[in-house]
Write a structure and sequence with these properties.
Blueprint (H helix, E strand, L loop, with lengths): L8 H6 L1 H9 L4 E5 L3 E2 L11 H14 L5 E6 L2 E6 L1 H9 L4 E7 L4 H13 L6 H13 L5 H8 L3 H9 L5 H8 L5 H8 L4 H14 L3 H11 L5 H8 L3 H14 L3 E5 L4 E5 L4 H12 L2
Parallel strand pairs: 2-4, 3-5
Antiparallel strand pairs: 1-5, 3-4, 6-7
Helix pairs in contact: 3-4, 5-6, 6-8, 7-8, 10-12
Length: 287
């Protein structure tokens, strides 16, 4: 267990002195009884994928713990800094103890910052949990976006882009946490300024498994924000026609333009490929 990778990319990058010392001291890894370990109160991961937990449990049952968890001493036991998924699996398997690195972390502030930053480095963390991690570093650890970017090894624009995801409706955020939406899908939805339009397009993404490119094109077709020429033309329409145009645009999730004449008029509906045309036709026909 002296392989440096055992510490995890996050911790070894954040605390190289402790990591190096842990390689030199055999007693730096302790076997701690499960009933003496408490979960991390500052855990940034909100969703634990049941299927991935089962896969990890099977691996542990077959090969044991390859990577120790990391804890701190707390009251008469320990608190997890990193490795809660491994801890849960070991506990559920009925194993009585787990290997752990014990770090000298004495304050909750230091614990929170280290825990959030370490978890953000995990490749399997979803974009919303990452965004919430950045938000907590700013709000609870009193860091600036620039300081957060420095600590996690990202540029400031990347941190800002993740934080913008927290402006999405809660339903869409939860969908991204479950893995139904990628970072690309979520960022495309941010370009839609109307919440109702965002939710309508999100439902289309889930129902039709739209690609990020298709979502970007759909957002473009919605015409948000509207061009001045569209606005000027719309102001000349009667309230009834404007209402009908808005209802059609929301129902079909694409740009719709009504062209009234002296008597009657025409409806112009945009589509960006054959699949989108089929979707619009099926929506109109109720199929």
């Amino acid at each position: 267990m002296t392989n440096r990778k055992a510490l995890g990319r996050g911790l070894s990058a954040l605390i190289p002195d402790i990591a190096a010392e842990s390689q030199e001291r055999k007693d730096s890894i302790q076997f701690i009884r499960i009933n003496r370990i408490a979960p991390n109160p500052f855990q940034p991961r909100e969703v634990f994928d049941a299927e991935k937990l089962a896969e990890l449990a099977n691996s542990i049952a077959e090969k044991g713990i390859v990577q120790p968890i990391t804890v701190r001493r707390h009251e008469d036991g320990y608190q997890i800094i990193a490795g809660e998924r491994r801890f849960r699996c070991v506990r559920d398997l009925g194993i009585n103890e787990i290997p752990a690195y014990v770090l000298d972390i004495t304050t909750d502030a230091e614990m929170m910052e280290l825990s959030i930053i370490e978890n953000i480095h995990r490749e399997d963390l979803n974009p919303i949990d990452i965004a919430n991690g950045y938000r907590r570093l700013i709000e609870e650890c009193h860091l600036t976006q620039e300081q957060v970017a420095h600590k996690v090894g990202k540029d400031r624009a990347t941190v800002a882009n993740f934080l913008r995801l927290l402006k999405l409706p809660r339903q869409i955020q939860e969908s991204a946490q479950k893995g139904d939406l990628s970072m690309g899908h979520a960022r495309a939805l941010l370009s839609v300024t109307d919440t109702e339009h965002q939710l309508t397009l999100w439902k289309k993404i889930i129902a039709a498994s739209l690609s990020v490119r298709q979502v970007e094109q759909a957002v473009k077709k919605l015409g948000e924000p509207r061009k001045k020429t569209d606005t000027q033309e719309t102001t000349r329409l009667s309230a009834y026609v404007k209402d009908a145009e808005d209802r059609l645009r929301k129902a079909l999730t694409t740009k719709v333009k009504l062209k009234p004449k002296a008597t009657g008029g025409s409806i112009e509906i945009d589509y960006y490929d054959d699949d989108d045309l089929d979707r619009i036709v099926n929506t109109i026909l109720g199929e």
